[in-house]
Amino acid sequence: MARRHVRTSAGAAALAGIGIAAVGLAAPAQAVTITQDYECTYEVLNLGQIAGDPDVSVSYTVDLPTSVEEGEQITSDVTAVVTIPESRRDSLYSLLNVRAVDAPSDPLNAAGVSVSDGTDSVDGDIAFTSPLTDVPASGELVVTATGSVSVPAPSAGTYDVEATDLTAFIRGYADADGQSYTTNVTLRCTNVSESTSVGTIEVTEADSEPTPTTDEPTTDEPTTDEPTTDEPTSEDPDPTTSSDPTATSGSPTSVQTPALVQTDASQGGSGQSPALLLGGGLLAAVGGLGLTLTRRRASARH
């Protein structure tokens, strides 16, 4: 059987705190009062164990829930009324000269609780404290302790809540105001009750919550805000596809050949023959061609 063990802090304590209630105000709960019987040994400071095992009776008042969800904390406030038999009260009063007792925050002030379905189980140790209490000159010694307990709810199922063993560390004072510490007594008690059951708790499966789809902001990766790193294609010139210098924009592609004008000799006044005019035209054409070639070479060098 799988068992888990939980111990609460000493500050949130109850004597045997066996009552358990679910966390949350909405959890239905009911007050339960039960009485458990314990068989105890007594160890007295500087005297050792006292003979005899008189019973100690403990009455618990707890808030026991009807159901909790698995995984939740199970908690309860507890009031425990401890009745110590007259024989032990007389030993404190007459033999040890004790007039008041208390139960401080101490690891020995602890009681057990078990939540089990026979297969899965959660065990808890609950620390407890008790205020200063007068020791009467006769009769039983009654001490009231208060506190709380908290254990995690097991997996879904029906569970029995049971009281287990307890220990107690009691300090004794020679005066009623608790100023003269004189001794201490350690009790180690076994639960001998016919029934150790406090009640039952139904542990239900936890409700699954749907995954939010529209309330939360999306986290899509940006597509247009970040700069791209594509390789340039048309802006950087490719040496293998550079333009032919002969096709450079802005350079003349043809030479205008001046027309030959035939001038009649009779139309004098100019003093120039047709041969001279033809020679001058050819020189002008060659000069224009040379200028064009010079511009094209200069463009190719750029």
Automatic annotation (TrEMBL):
The keyword Signal applies. Residues 196-277 are annotated as: Disordered. It comes from the Bacteria. Residues 255-264 have a biased composition (Polar residues). Residues 239-254 have a biased composition (Low complexity). Residues 1-31 form the signal peptide. It holds the Pfam family DUF6801. Residues 217-238 have a biased composition (Acidic residues). Residues 37-191 form the DUF6801 domain. InterPro entries: DUF6801. The lineage of its organism: Bacteria, Bacillati, Actinomycetota, Actinomycetes, Micrococcales. The keyword Transmembrane helix does not apply. This is DUF6801 domain-containing protein. Keywords: Signal.
